[in-house]
Amino acid sequence: MDKSLDVLLSQLVEEIERVEETKHQFGSVMTTIKNKIEISKFPSITSNLIDLDFTKKIEATSLSGLKITGIDGGLVRRRFRSMDLVVTRGIAVLFQFGPEEGPIVDFFPDPFPEPKVRPMMLTLSGTELEQLASLERVAVELKVALSVLDEFHSDLILIDGSLFYHPRDRPQSGSIVYEKFQEVLALYKQLYNKAKKKGTTLVGIVKDSRSSRLTSFLGDILPHIIRDPSVFELMQGIDYRWLLKISRDCDILDTFLEEGERSFVFNYSSELQINSNSLSEDLSNWASSIWVTYLKTARDDLPLRIEFLSDGNKNSIWKLDKALAAILPLSWQHPEYGIPTPILEADTRAKITMNETQLIIDRLMALSGLTYTTLEKRRSRNPFGGG
Length: 387
Prior knowledge:
With 387 residues, the protein is an alpha+beta fold. It is 43% helix and 18% strand.
């Protein structure tokens, strides 16, 4: 092997060791001081926070009598010479918990729904194609959620992913994709309104969040906290500013959150760069109704980002913690993987397999009379084995 590669890998190992050692030291200090941190002393950030507990222990509740639904969507995109095919599937898995026996499980619309197929012509740019594919998947999920609210009673609906669209999914207003984006926004609003009307708690479970909003909050308050001589002594020699700069929220919280513990709660709207052209007023109001916290559901897994649709009354924090208390026992299947069971089951059934995709392609060719040579891009049919 090339010696220069060995040198690069050795440098990478040193960097990883530096990160892990700094995280360990930082986490030890934060574990020591976290119960003494008073967020109320920092008015510059409390305007974006919902409660003033820096961390809070959540006690798991009994699931007996609860009806909890998990919703997820699957997406496969196949590229051809003259078009792209987007294949999507949405499913809801409904768990009804009895007093002792295991849950009764139902599915909507079916245990394995037929995937939906949409052609996309290549007049769209690469970015627009990505946006349209993502929006198609989100739309399928939201329509399933709305149907579940219409046809079933659920105490708690868990959606795999955020309760708000991702900024990268927002096309330019002049784009052909913008009409689809508007449709998705309308579906979000319908979902928020219907969940509140039905009295159903709506929660987004974000498994692999890349947000760094909470680390930004920590970066604002820690310089003030370490003015305390006792904390300064503990933190001395730890480059916490560097660590916060390179870390996501989940990575930092994993250093000091204990199993069954949540972080402080902040407003989703504090993460948005809102201006007069970015969001309609009513959607901005909905963003303010979404609260965000992180919950450590498994001993050896990263915390989950939890998004909660609040009804804005004085009992909202109690309702959030009640939802978290139900999510905990749903997530205890394995100490290294703390994903709630309804989400795991929905994810498994929403995935679109290669076999299913190939069946759709084969059927397309049979009905159209086209061949692989006609359909596939040149790179996909290289007879010499290239990628």
